Every structure is written in structure tokens, then in C-alpha cells.
């Protein structure tokens, strides 16, 4: 199993990053590839999950061990495959996702990409006792007022996307500036992961 890769970012796309490790380019699918955009020409560490199935061998990558660990727990839940788990991590940082599971916050979980009520209930049932020591102390915002406020600005998924971007190290000032550019480019029903990726692209472009 490939547990991590260390190298330079050679290429970025909306779903993956290509990491140059001693002249070999590894395509690594990431929740938010643009999180690595500011690290061009620097040596970066990408924590990975090596996924093997009959028709493909894939690498999924993460910027932290917590993301990697939560991803591996998520794909143990019936109905959650690697792609859905990636969507969950793109829509919420590990602390808030773990907190939602511990607090049995179905309202929050069902706002994550690809998660319906039954899957949210399975996440709580299967994982609540398996996430000890994984953060989860985050104070979750009340989704209804936040969503209503964001809806007036164009998209109800922005508060969750903003929380994820803050977890990546972006400041309130940077996020306010990028939202002023982004709010006219997203639809009212656009998914959180899509909003986040568009925001990261704008942040990367400066």
C-alpha cells in the first residue's frame, strides 16, 4: 500500500493533482486539489489511500492524516464508496464532519454531497463509536440561518464551503474577496464541492 507521496506539484485539475516524485508523475485524486496550488516548486507531502478494484488502481490523496483517516472510515460505511467519501471531504473539514456524526446532526450531514437521510443515519450508526480521538469538538453552525443568509447572496452551500476553505488556511479577508467574485458564477442549487473548487481556482489565480 502507498501511504504517502512526497514530491512537487506538476499539474492540477479540478479532481486531481499530478505529483512528480523523482521523475515519476502520480495522478492523485483529492477532495480539493487546489489546496496544493500555492505549493508549486515546493516539496509537498500527500497522504494517500491506495484503492484497488478489478478495473482500476487509484490513488486518493489528502493534505492531512485526519483527512486520510476519516476517508478510510467513511468507505467502511455501506453505500459510501471512494467518490462519495471524497465529496464529503470536499464539502466539510474532518472536525466538522466528525462533530456532526458525534452530535447526530443529520441536518448537517445531508447537506454534504451525495448524502441522503438514510446514508447519514448509517454514518452515525456505524462511525459514532469509531472516531475517538479524531477532533469532532467543532461547534457546528446552525445550518438553517446560515443557508438562508447565503441564499440571499446566491448559494446556500457557501457557508460550508467557506468553513472548508478556512480549514485549509485561507483568511476571512481572502474568502470575502473571493466570494464577491464568485457569487455571480454559481447557481442557487450548486453543490458545496463545486462551489469550493471554483473558489479554490479563484484563490489560486489571485
From TrEMBL:
Coarse class of the protein's main subcellular location: cytoplasm
Keywords of this entry: ATP-binding, Cytoplasm, DNA damage, DNA recombination, DNA repair, DNA-binding, Helicase, Hydrolase, Nucleotide-binding
GO biological process: DNA recombination; DNA repair
InterPro entries (UniProt xref): DNA_helicase_Holl-junc_RuvA_I, Hlx-hairpin-Hlx_DNA-bd_motif, NA-bd_OB-fold, RuvA, RuvA_2-like, RuvA_C, RuvA_C_sf
UniProt protein name: Holliday junction branch migration complex subunit RuvA
Region: Domain III, residue numbers: 148-206
Domain notes: Has three domains with a flexible linker between the domains II and III and assumes an 'L' shape. Domain III is highly mobile and contacts RuvB.
Biological function: The RuvA-RuvB-RuvC complex processes Holliday junction (HJ) DNA during genetic recombination and DNA repair, while the RuvA-RuvB complex plays an important role in the rescue of blocked DNA replication forks via replication fork reversal (RFR). RuvA specifically binds to HJ cruciform DNA, conferring on it an open structure. The RuvB hexamer acts as an ATP-dependent pump, pulling dsDNA into and through the RuvAB complex. HJ branch migration allows RuvC to scan DNA until it finds its consensus sequence, where it cleaves and resolves the cruciform DNA.
NCBIfam families recorded: ruvA (TIGR00084)
Membership in a protein family: Belongs to the RuvA family.
SMART domains xrefs: HhH1
GO molecular function, one term: four-way junction DNA binding
Residue ranges occupied by any Helix-hairpin-helix DNA-binding motif class domain in the UniProt entry: 72-91, 107-126
Source organism of this protein record: Fontibacillus phaseoli
Protein localization: Cytoplasm
GO CC annotations, alphabetized: cytoplasm; Holliday junction helicase complex; Holliday junction resolvase complex
Subunit composition and interactions: Homotetramer. Forms an RuvA(8)-RuvB(12)-Holliday junction (HJ) complex. HJ DNA is sandwiched between 2 RuvA tetramers; dsDNA enters through RuvA and exits via RuvB. An RuvB hexamer assembles on each DNA strand where it exits the tetramer. Each RuvB hexamer is contacted by two RuvA subunits (via domain III) on 2 adjacent RuvB subunits; this complex drives branch migration. In the full resolvosome a probable DNA-RuvA(4)-RuvB(12)-RuvC(2) complex forms which resolves the HJ.
